[in-house]
Design goal:
By secondary structure, the chain is mainly alpha-helical. It is built from six helices and three strands.
C-alpha cells in the first residue's frame, strides 16, 4: 500500500466519524464526544492527514507544467481526483462556513456543571442557570461547531490524497485498444 492511499483511507474514515458526530449534534442535539471521549483525537488527526497532503501538494506543483508558479493551483492539485470527491470536499467547505455561522448564532455561552447546578457561563461570569436539556443542547452546539471543521478538513485532505494510480508523480500508462475495422 502506498503512503497516499493509507493517508487517504485515514482521512476518509475520520471524515465519516466527523459527519456522524456533526449530524448527531446538529439533528439530535446529542454530544457524542461526551459519550466517546476518544473522538477528540480527531483534532490531532487533522494534522496527521494534512502533513502528507501538503507534501503531495508541493510535489504536484513542482511537477506541473508551471512549477515556478507561487500559487497552488486547484487544477494541478485535483487533476486525478474524481468529480464526486471534489464535490464532497467543496460542499464540506461550504458546510463548515454555514455550520460555523449557525454555531456562533446559537452560542449564548459555555455550559458548565458547578455546585450541583447547570450554568451558562461567559468567561468567569454566570449568565444564568439552565436546565439539563439546555445544558445538553449547549454541549451539542459546541461539538457541532468544531466537528463541522473536521468535515471540511478531512474531506479536503481526502480529495488531495486520493489518486492511488499515480506512482512517482506520473500517471500509469494505459494503452487504448485498437478499434475493429469497419466492414
Amino acid at each position: 500500500m502506498n503512503w497516499n492511499k493509507f493517508f487517504f483511507l485515514l482521512a476518509a474514515t475520520c471524515w465519516v466519524l466527523a459527519v456522524v458526530t456533526n449530524l448527531t449534534a446538529w439533528l439530535a442535539h446529542y454530544d457524542m464526544s461526551r459519550i466517546f471521549p476518544p473522538l477528540f483525537v480527531l483534532h490531532i488527526g487533522v494534522f496527521v492527514v494534512w502533513i502528507p497532503a501538503f507534501i503531495l501538494l508541493i510535489e504536484r506543483q513542482q511537477k506541473s507544467e508551471n512549477p515556478l508558479s507561487k500559487r497552488i493551483q486547484l487544477k494541478v492539485v485535483l487533476r486525478d481526483t474524481p468529480w464526486w470527491l471534489i464535490s464532497i470536499a467543496g460542499l464540506g467547505m461550504v458546510y463548515a462556513m454555514y455550520n460555523w455561522a449557525g454555531f456562533v448564532a446559537n452560542n449564548e455561552g459555555n455550559p458548565e456543571f458547578r455546585d450541583g447546578q447547570y450554568l451558562l457561563m461567559e468567561h468567569a461570569n454566570v449568565i444564568r442557570t439552565i436546565t439539563l436539556d439546555e445544558y445538553n443542547s449547549a454541549q451539542a452546539n459546541i461539538t457541532r461547531g468544531f466537528s463541522g471543521h473536521w468535515v471540511a478538513f478531512y474531506g479536503s485532505a481526502a480529495a488531495i490524497l486520493y489518486p492511488f494510480g499515480i506512482r512517482n508523480g506520473t500517471p500509469p500508462v494505459v494503452s487504448q485498444a485498437e478499434s475493429p475495422p469497419l466492414s
